[in-house]
Amino acid sequence: MKIIRYLVAVILLSLISLGGAVQAQSSSIVDLEYVKAAQQRGVIIWDVRASNQYLEGHIPGAINVGDIGTALRDPNREDFIDLAEINSIFNKAGLDINKEIIVYGSRGNPYAYFGLFTINYFGGKQAKVFHDGIDGWADAGLLIEKTPSTLASINVRLIPQEYLVVTNEQMRSLYNNQSVQVVDARTFNEFKGNDVRAIRGGHIPGAVSIPYEQNWKDPATGSKLAKKEVKTNVGMSLKSKDELNALYSKLDPNKETVVYCQSGVRAAETAIVLQNLGYKNVKIYDSSWLGWASHLASPVADETYLNVGMLNARIAAMQNKINELEATLKANKN
Question: What is the phi/psi pair of residue 102, to 5°?
Fold first, then answer.
């Protein structure tokens, strides 16, 4: 009888331990130790930064297809380029969405999260993001590689998972639905219409303003770096789970949640953070503010308009100053 009890106890402890391990790895946001172990296992690692940054130093074995923001997106609409083109890029690079892929950029960079979203959107199920990115890797004193890494080409068909996104038409019918909560991940100035980056400024009525930088330990790190008030971007590290739960405490994890920003990139970071906090149904408004503001029949709170005449005047004034500076430089050279 004692032997049976002992065996049962061992099995229970093993199950608990296994459950803890599964839970620890169930998060799609992973830490340095996970990345180190994954690298040893031969997991695909995708560096989404620009090629020149990649060549300056990357995690050994990581592949790169250039800046994800320009390689996979239309420069005007900021939506995905043609599916066939993306499929060709993935196959040529060996980015097999059927395998585990770890995506990274610089610390806190939303484009890394957009990379994770991209893999999920096209059918991947095992993708993860390394929030601290190349900065976290370098801070740990680990080997940095400058030689490009490549993988064998593949032949995988990408299939868009439309349930992960909300279209313009769907958003216009969802935004005032009480069973849906909308999160605006842009800056507060964009939200209030003080920073106009589309035809109109403002926000979707009823949306909750939680800038994606609030996910960081120090949301002001970007501006502090620009002002040289801090020397590193360590403040862009992700807040603890308790801090993140407090940040989103006014939201309901059981409600459908739609996140948007300017074009869907910053929204990707917030959406994935919410998913890792246990939110049941999180979607990204694909066209985001660019799509909403451009549809003039869509209602806007704190609405402002882009003054094209003033913008042209400022551009002309700036060009005049550039011309004057070039003339002065030329005269000094002569």
Answer: -105, 125
